[in-house]
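Quick one:
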Amino acid sequence: MAAAGVDSVPSPVEANGAAYKPRYIDIGINLADPIFRGQYHGTQRHPDDLGAVVSRAKEVGCEKLIITGSDFTSSRHALEIAKEYPGTVYTTAGIHPCSSAIFSTTHSHVDANGHTMPCDPDPTQPIPEDHEPDAEKTASIITELRSFIEQARSGSGGPSPLVAFGEFGLDYDRLHYCSRKVQLHSFAAQLELAASLQPQLPLFLHSRAAHSDFVRLLKEAFGPQLERLERGAVVHSFTGTAEEMRELMDLGLYIGTNGCSFKTAENCAVVKEIRLDRLMLETDGPWCEVRPSHEGWKYLIEPKPANPDAEAASSETNGVATATASATPSESAQPQRPPPKGKQQQQQKSKKSQKKEPEVPERYKVVKKEKWVEGAMIKGRNEPCMIERVGKIVAGIKGVTVEELCEAAWRNTTKVFPVDG
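Output:
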């Protein structure tokens, strides 16, 4: 699939010259995760607030959300959610590499209580490589997946909310969920299914520390230049090298960025090189939030404006100092009495009670899940409304305006995924 240039599409700036309002499409959000229903590891910790999550997304300009299907359960739930929010929420269907142990003879799949797998690698306990792919299970899984996709595409009575095949691919950072051998088998089997669909669906791909095998299998399925890939594909949550990213772009693939793409200076250097005509935005919530420890965080910090009162304050300070200096020697020689003990303690308490202003203000109130209140975000639970931070960081890294960034990402996303109807 040959790379294409940026289309010339006018930006949605109002004719009267009003300020640009960013618009976003979150290409990867795990809204089918029970955490968005208030459930954490099988326990209901607060009321279902999925509706509020979607509302907050729309308030910041995130007009479209694509829910990631990472196994049969999440793909079914994602489709149900998409039907609740027609025209806003869409979905994918596939088997994530970390869920691919179902293809094996042992099926030692990790039970995560319905939760999607966290982003962070944990290679300490990889599954043994002697686990073999199971041909009979594979045939059954592929038949079930084909049936699910066909029903989702034909049973909506209008445009289907199912807009991509995936999430699927390879993840060698997290072999504790599924062995390398079984992942390769799962990816190849799903690629064969994806290539056979008529018409094909766009692909929502995952590649982590597995670039050479990932590209090899894609080429085996779709040709040396992916010329048989009809609808395009995105490699989401990209954290690879600049060289790997360039190879993917040269194959015509798109690159998805989220909080995991900004952790280090090296990550940010890669993001800087992503061409605007190949870039997409995502949150990958509830995971992959942007954190203060991330290199990209600095692009969220607004420069402090020059304080017009600074000079006056300085003059006042100098005035006090001058007044003291102009006092008579006998007056200046008088020792300054400390404030009474009670007043001193009160001043100390007052200083402690003053909360330091956050360097990056929160748009919404943030609370721990145990202290949930209506309208608040949950600490540590990344949401699609946080895509505005992703956009601002990518724009800052690349040295372009938020408008340029958002409009390029919108064009790219709607070119690949049928979500702009």
